[in-house]
Amino acid sequence: MNEHQFDKYLHINTVGEQYGFPKLAHYHRYEPTPYVGLEQLFSEYEMPENPVFIDMGCGKGRVPIYVHDKFHIPTIGVEMDAGFYAEAENNKRGYLQKKSAQAPISFIHSIAEDYAIQPSDTVFFFFNPFSIHIFRTVIHNIWESYEQHMREIHIILYYPPYDYLQFLHHGTPFELIHEVHLENETNINERLCVFALKKA
């Protein structure tokens, strides 16, 4: 399926050119995560047991809705832009009207660094949503949550920026456990990296 067909299947509307500039300097412009990359990722990678999936900078909600539909697990999207948050909520309504859902799906209007990491949160997805300064703060929040409630935690980076990778490799106990080189892409940055913090 192409982008439009995937949206139609999920009864959502997330296709479109990126637009608008974020109000905060450290946050990047919206761009939807390509479905083809998500399909390739989840054909090769397995989440930890009893996952709760968090998309940091979820835009219009494509990734949390896609993951919810594919795995029937709790998903959460965190979005700072009020307009995108409203579109994500609207997409959730369209999706739930057509799909039967057991697990919860929710969107939170907040900047990522203010999101309160829950003891059940285990998989965190980043599609280059903000600067390294914000990323460090969010990873620190995740690490603090891990120290209080030890469990296996995964970090998924889609098109990982070099400074994100350097920080995780050299500034944290997270270890690279999986790498997906996207099909039909020649740029080395066109990939996904999964880092894990194992339960002690």
Using the alpha-carbon principal axes, give the shape.
globular
In oligomeric terms, what are we looking at? Answer: single chain
| Secondary-structure element string | HHEHEHEEHEHEE
Percent helix: 25-40%
Radius of gyration: 16 Å
Class of secondary structure makeup? alpha/beta
Number of helices: 6
Mean pLDDT: 90
Uncertain residue ranges: none
Major β-sheet profile: 7 strands, mixed
Strand order of the largest sheet: 3-2-1-4-5-7-6
Strand content: 15-25%
Number of strands: 7
Distance between the termini: 41 Å
Write the layout of secondary structure elements.
Elements: H1 3-10, H2 35-44, E1 53-56, H3 62-71, E2 75-79, H4 82-98, E3 105-109, E4 123-126, H5 132-148, E5 153-158, H6 162-171, E6 175-181, E7 191-197
Parallel strand pairs: 1-2, 1-4, 2-3, 4-5
Antiparallel strand pairs: 5-7, 6-7
Care to describe what's here?
This protein is α/β, with parallel strands linked by helices and 200 residues long. The chain has helices at 3-10, 35-44, 62-71, 82-98, 132-148, 162-171, and strands at residues 53-56, 75-79, 105-109, 123-126, 153-158, 175-181, 191-197. The chain has a seven-stranded mixed beta sheet, covered by helices on one side. Strand 4, helix 5 (132-148) and strand 5 form a beta-alpha-beta unit. It starts with a helix and ends with a strand.
Task: List descriptors.
about 35% helix, about 200 residues, about 20% strand, seven-stranded mixed sheet, Class I SAM-dependent methyltransferase, SAM-dependent_MTases_sf, methyltransferase activity, alpha/beta, methyltransferase
